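Title: Prediction job returns without error message
Component: structure pipeline
Severity: low
Priority: P3
Assignee: unassigned

Description:
Job completed but the reporter wants confirmation the result is attached to the right record. Sequence as submitted:
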Amino acid sequence: MANKRTLEDLRRLYTREVKGPKMGMGPGRPGGGPRGRIPVSGRPKNTGSTVKRLWSYVASYKLSLMLVIFLMLCSTLTSLAGSYILRPVINNVADGNIPAAERIQNLLFILIFIGIIYLVGIGATYLQQRLMMKIAQDSVEKIRNDLFCKLQELPVRFFDNNTTGDLMSRFTNDIDNINMMINNTIVQLVSGTITLIGTFIMMVYTNIWLTLVTLCFIPLVMLGGTFIAKRSGKYYSSQQSALGAVNGYIEETVSGSKVIKVFNHESVCEEEFGLINEDLRQKQFKAQFYGGIMGPILGNLSQISYAVTAGIGGLLCIYNGFDIGGVSVFCNYSRQFSMPINMIAQQTSTIFAALAGAERVFAIMDKTPLDADLPKFPENTPQSEIESYIEKQKNALSTKGLTVPMRGDVVFDNVTFGYNPDKIILKNISLYAHPGQKIAFVGSTGAGKTTITNLLNRFYDIDGGTITIDGENIKDFDRDHLRKNIAMVLQDTHLFTGTVMENIRYGRLDATDEEVIAAAKTASAHSFIMRLEKGYDTVLTGDGSNLSQGQRQLLNIARAALSKAPILVLDEATSSVDTRTERHIEHGMDRLMKNRTTFIIAHRLSTVRNANAIMVLEAGEIIERGSHEELLALGGRYYELYTGKKELD
């Protein structure tokens, strides 16, 4: 196979951090790559501000946090106290000068007391975990809500430049890492610090010389832990990248299974998957190996420290009068002392991953909803100047037309636009549409037909010229009000999970059931809906996968009919259906277009014959305009297309 992809090719394609294209790429070009989970790696760029931002979400639970810290303190103190009380127990049992009955009585009393202490510790730990879990979940819920709400406000240009997989990773990987840090890492850091300080104090109180012996082993334990952590962190990072590649490849092949089978590409897919799957196996082995040996190595170092401490403690008992109970308690403390150190060290990678993820989440939240409206500021423009411009722009939005219904008188005057400043898509476009007129656009793919309708909706803002509706510049209208007055029927339909009734009502949420049914009848959709198992209550899933393409499009038309918008955009609404279904859809669209200003984009020229004016576009310019008969009489580009002398690209 001449173009066989290597493992390096697959790694490059499926493990890269997907960022989408450069600013200015048009719609329908959101960048390549899989839409799988994208791993987060690396350190945060601005730790201080990110921590402060995260704290703002947790700060509303200050009282609960103070209670959590108090409960941690109680849990640690009960653990330390319980261990220390063993000292008199052991000394009591080992003291042969005390009568056996008295020793048993003392032993039972102390054991009951220890039991009460540990019960208090268990209760404190349980309450602390419950409270911290609630704080974490509530904080993460707020972050997730803020992120989702921000996405609803962002312009279409933002979604052109960010892939679905990249955005989804904010809600999955990044927020999961934040949740893990708030719920577990913070608790372990605070608890580990309290335990470390408390254990050290008790060790010094018990025996200063044995404390010095134990401290001699701490650098060795920390060195071993750091050595393993660095390597395991590196391999875990590569494991996550390899896992992202496997997930992305699986998702892509499953979604493209029909194409794979049509072109007999199964064996190639199996071979390529074998490469990246083997790559994942090797990296998982290294990651799991280093992750697995950390515990035994640190445990053995702790055991060596324990043995040396016990040996020296025994010598102190023999030669210095140190009590046996003190040796036993201190050995227990020395074993506990290294645990919080290791626990704190192991949280470093989790903290960095969470903060890096938080930066990615906050980067989305900091996007302004007016990004599409911003002029091209010089690179070193102060942020305060940009924010001042945005504020003025918000205040300048006119309320014109909010109370007066739009009539649909649309004028494009010398409009120039480019998704990318280096490439102009529309060049000096001028046209008008009076209320109730039908304006059609024909031309090759990429000529700028869809771009014109995108500008009318203000999905993007023009670079030059003006667009007015009823004599008012569309930039002076509130976006929500503008879009409520423009209904669209797109080539690619999108149906949401829910009933047929709910999907049609998406066109106007306050519509009654009777209005929904009337809109369905207008769109010629009522008859097939009534043949469904539960009629209008039939639940659609998987983007309406249980309906035909034509039925889905009829629901899309019904949705537009329900909106009662005075301006209608039909973007190749019949290009993906058969001729018989097309007649059904056109019948519905004829009623839909009645008394509305309509813009029609079509590849099938038969659908635009009745338009009041037809605009022929090539390379972003209108090269011909007129009615169907006028353009045929002209004998130009439209005539060649209609008679079949030339075909649309």
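Comment from assignee: result matches the submitted record. The mean pLDDT is 78.
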